Structures are given as structure tokens and as C-alpha cells.
Fold each of these.
Amino acid sequence: MLFDPRPKTSRGELYDRDVELSMLDGFVESGSPLMVVFGIRRIGKTSLLRVFLNEVGLPYIYIDARVFEEQGFGKDLLYRMLSIELNRLRGKWASIIEYLRVLEGVEVGATTIRFNWRKKPLSITDVFVRLDDWASDNGRVVVIAVDEAQLLRYLKGGKGRIDFTKIISYCYDNLRNIKFIVTGSEIGVLKDFLGFDNPNSWLYGRIRDELVVDRFDREKSRDFLEKGFSECGVKPPSSIVEEVLDRVDGIPGWLTYFGYKYCRRPSPEIVKEVFSEAKRLVLEEIRKLPSKYYVYALKAISIGYKQWKNIKQAIELWTNHPLTNAQTTRILQTLVKLSLIEKEDNEYKILDPIIAEAVKEL
Ligand SMILES: Nc1ncnc2c1ncn2[C@@H]1O[C@H](COP(=O)(O)OP(=O)(O)OP(=O)(O)O)[C@@H](O)[C@H]1O
Ligand SMILES: [Mg+2]
């Protein structure tokens, strides 16, 4: 179902991402060791990644880094996630386990794999080395996929921070049969974390493949809605469809959200309700920003103050507090890094129109 609100996992449910899927195919066949998938929130990164992994016919490890946000950024959770994934691989690629069994600190049970990393000198890299050995002996590639990888910057181990970019760079240099795919919705934050342009970063200067997941154009958005509605046997009036197209600007997540709700209760009132809910949802996300200044900056942009100077003045007026130039710049740069706004020709723009609507009303 196109309007299934969960991330899609099969190609039949994934609308119009054939080009992106073939780019991922090309990457595992002949690309660099690392693919970075960028895209703003709700654009369909997870869906693309999951459909690809399901179809590619290779062993893969999938780590959803948002789980760290919920359960803590500890090494134990990372190992737990690895155990679950490796245990899943057993079903189809049983011999992988034999390669892991030889590692000190790995306990293989009938239905579990346990990492005894606290007692034994075991590292994540050791595990990847063994996966690479298996892949090399079996003429395969093993894919390590990390969704929302920018969150890995908070990973902590026994003695301090775990630098996941160091692990990636080791694999990049030494393990021919391991490939990484990482995604991120905070595009600038992910870039900073990976540090391709930072001489102090492990991944400095590394060649990588990149893929940007973009919004649907208006025609595709309309077609997506039509197909979705015909699947659930509902036909909304074209005035409603056009209103939705105007308001969500091709973001698949919002099209899906609206389609799902409308199919369940097809009535004109639901449009208002859905948009109110969507705005509530984004405001919850916005409230996690470091301070109210960020929200005011968004509000300023949403009501038409698009230039640096005007945004600064608006924030100062609303907060009754002077801002230095450096503070203003930092606020705007952070919002750009979080992929909430973009800067073009010296004007700032909010990337998600639902966020723009929501902050305008604050
Ligand atoms: N190409 C697509 N075809 C069908 N549904 C899609 C497509 N892209 C996204 N969706 C739907 O949109 C919603 C958001 O998709 P998904 O979770 O994959 O996006 P995301 O970029 O990972 O979002 P987030 O940044 O919030 O994690 C989901 O309900 C998903 O089913
Ligand atoms: Mg996602």
C-alpha cells in the first residue's frame, strides 16, 4: 500500500525511486567503499534504504541510529544491535557464524550470538574483519547500513567516545568486501560528522558516493496521491488534492500521511485535522532545538524576513534582546546544518512547508 505510514520495504510499495535504487546497485557493484544518502526529514531515505537492502541479495547489517537516541548511546546497545542483525543473517548465510565463532569474546548459542566485549578484548572492527573474511571467501560483499548516522557522533564506549568514523575509515582502507551506506536527515551535521573536508577527521579526503533523495515534483505528487487513493478505493475532490499539493510541496512523508488519514475517514474536515496534527508533530520536533532563538529565526523566515539582517532584527524585537552578528550567523548556520532551512542568493528558506506553516502561527 502506497499510503502505509511505515517506511516501505518492498519495491512495489515504493513510488518512483528506480533511479535511486539503481544508483545503490551501482554502488555495491563498482562504487567506492562508502555511500552517503542525504535527504530532509520524511523524504523517504529509510524506505529507499530498506527496499534496497531487501532486494540486493547480499548480507547486510542495518543499524537505526535513532534507537540510540531512545535507549542511550552506549557501546552495549551497539553490540546488542549487531547481535540481532548477525543472528538474522544466520537464516540465509549460516556460515558467517563460523567466521565469528573464532573471535575471542563471541558466544554462539543455538538462537543467539553474544558479544562479551566487557571481559574480552573484542572490538567492532574485529567483527567487521571476520565479516570481510567471510565475504572474500564467498565472493560477496557485506553491507553495513546506518540510518541517521549523524547520531553516531554521540556513541560512548567504556573509556569515552567511540569514533565510528575511525571504524569506517579502517574498513575503507583494509576490508575490500565491506561497504557502508549511511543516511542522514541533518545533512550538514552528517557532513561535519563524517568530516570529508576536515583534515583532522579519519575520513578526510576520502572518495565516497553520494545520493540526494529529493521531493516529488507536482505531477508525481498528484500521481502518487491518485494511485494511493485508487488502492484504497477513495476519490477525493480535486480541490482537496490541489490544496494538499500546494501545502506539502512534494514531500512523500506528508503525502502519505494525508493519504493514509483521508482513506480512513474521507471527508473535507479531515484535511484541516490532518494539517493541524502535522503541525503539532513538527512543533514537537522544533521544540528540541537548543533555544527559542532558533524558533524565532524560523518564524521570521516563515513570515517573509528572508535576509540575514531582517531575521536578526525580528529575533531582537521578539526577544527584546540584542543579538551579536556572530550569534545570528551561528543560529542560521545551525538551522542550515539541521536541514531545516537553506540559503540561496543570500535569502533563507524553510525546506518543509508544514514547518513554515506551524512556526508562522506561533
Ligand atoms: N517513494 C515512496 N513511496 C511510497 N511511500 C513513501 C516513499 N517515500 C516515503 N514514503 C512514505 O513517507 C513516509 C516517510 O518515509 P521514510 O520514513 O522512508 O522517510 P525518511 O526520509 O527516512 O524520514 P525521517 O527523516 O523522518 O526518518 C513513510 O510513511 C513512507 O512510507
Ligand atoms: Mg528515516
Amino acid sequence: MDYAAVKLVHQGAVTLSIGGFALRGAASLAGAGWVRGRLAKTLPHIVDTVLLGSALWLAWMLRLSPTATPWLMAKIIGLVVYVALGVLALRPGRPPAQRALYGLAALTVVGWIVSVALSKNAWGFLAPLVGQGG
Ligand code: HEM
């Protein structure tokens, strides 16, 4: 597969991951039963595996190392935080207000990762706040 195709797969997985998470989060808060179904539980793992696999493939094709590329390191850390907040948001048993807050935090973090991806700046949309813009 050429670079453009892998990048398209990566961007597609990103879209499915964010859209799927927002949908499951909203449905879970609304008490929908399908959120606990088999498909809703396995599909996200497949999407996230494709997301990470394509990410590593792109980085490998560009010969980029996270330790030498701050924006890449920022994305990896961001992905771990996004997944952790997502797990908390979807975990049953917590008060709905708390889950909604975790869900919004997860969406904010993934929005920040997209801003890091587009700007190739490790601070992403926080850059102007910390004087790291430009
Ligand atoms: C939720 C997590 C992630 C999101 C939302 C995300 C988002 C994106 C987006 C939107 C692009 C396209 C950028 C453009 O059009 O220039 C992109 C490209 C890329 N991403 Fe990710 N990504 C994520 C995780 C990762 C991770 C963990 C890595 C590294 C291991 C990674 C490595 C890359 C690379 C190398 C490119 C290609 C950059 C280029 O062609 O200039 N991504 N990502």
C-alpha cells in the first residue's frame, strides 16, 4: 500500500473512532441497550487497532521516531489519555453527570490530537496559550 492509501486508512479510522465513541457515549447516557451488545463492544477494538497500526505504519514510512519527533510523542500520549477517558465515560455504574464529563474530556483530548496532527506542533491548539505558535 502506498503512503497516501495508508494515510487515508488512518484518517478513516480516526473518523470512525471519534464518531463511534460520540455515538456510544450519547446512546449509553440515553440508556440504549445496544451499547452493551457484542458488535458495539468489539467494533471499537477493531477500529482502534487499525488506527494505531496505520499510525505506526505511517511513522515507519516517514522514518520518524517518537523520541526525535515531539508532535508524534504528543499524539501517542494523547491517544492513551483519550482511550482512558473513553473507558471511564462508557463504564456503567458511574453517575451519568460524571460519565458525560469524562466523555466531553475525551472528545476535547481527541480534538487536540487532531490539531497536533494538522499543525505538526506538539502543543496543537494549546500552542498560542504557551507561546509555542508559529
Ligand atoms: C486518536 C489518535 C489520532 C488522531 C485523531 C490522529 C489524526 C491524524 C490526522 C487527522 C492525520 C492527517 C494529518 C494531515 O492531513 O496532515 C494524521 C496523520 C498522521 N498520524 Fe495520526 N492520529 C492519531 C494517532 C496517531 C498516532 C498514535 C501516531 C503515531 C504513532 C500517528 C501518526 C501519524 C502520522 C505519521 C501521520 C502522517 C503525517 C503526514 O502525512 O504528514 N497518529 N493523524
